[in-house]
Amino acid sequence: MKPGAGKGKGAPRGLAVSLRSAQGRSAASQRWLTRQLNDPYVAAAKAQGWRSRAAFKLIELDERFKLIHAGVRVVDLGAAPGGWTQVALRRGAGSVVALDLLPMDPLPGAAVLQGDFSDPAVAGQVQAALGGNADLVLSDMAPNTTGHAATDHLRIMALAEAALVFALDVLGDGGSFVAKVFQGGSERAMLERMKQAFGLVRHAKPPASRKESSELYVVAQKFRSPAHGAGAVEARLRRG
Fold this sequence. Notes:
Blueprint: H1 27-37, H2 40-48, H3 55-65, E1 73-77, H4 83-90, E2 95-100, E3 110-114, H5 120-130, E4 134-139, H6 149-170, E5 171-182, H7 187-194, E6 198-204, E7 215-223, H8 230-239
Parallel strand pairs: 1-2, 1-4, 2-3, 4-5
Antiparallel strand pairs: 5-7, 6-7
Helix pairs in contact: 3-4, 6-8
């Protein structure tokens, strides 16, 4: 979905915008600001009331994979500032829990929690707020980058793997899982492990994901809950 397509109006496309002054800014900061000023998704997000341009990534993924429907129960891991939570709510989710280590402004209709999803106590709070098994677990989490590709890849894969373990514990039969990963090779191992628990596993790079970025999204659907509960799948994956 392009910024001007679908619900809401996109930002007008005009001439490229340049920084008026670079005084006091590093070269990296200048590049980031210039990119933001000339990014149609950033402008469209502001015009349509999304908290971040990342909202368009989930919209595009949802239009392709049909992840969100009326009444679906959603957990949004690493939710701040709330763009993906907004999308889930606007697209008809029945119950949405947004969790992040950072504080996040409230969103009507969502339970906003602050904490670490790998903490059993926090995980329990998420499940209680959800009111049952999840139908969809989302993770747009990414670590602070170091600039060293191999290190950054390992860090984001560690987050994605942890999100997967969480998802296996809370998803109900037929549920879905979406997580951000970086291209780099070891994501193939995670895909193989996911195929043990889901009937369909695919990679996707939504149009809103910047072309120069190595990010991809892994989309797993048709979760098969084992006879002895999701914890059995987790144990098997850990052994694998």
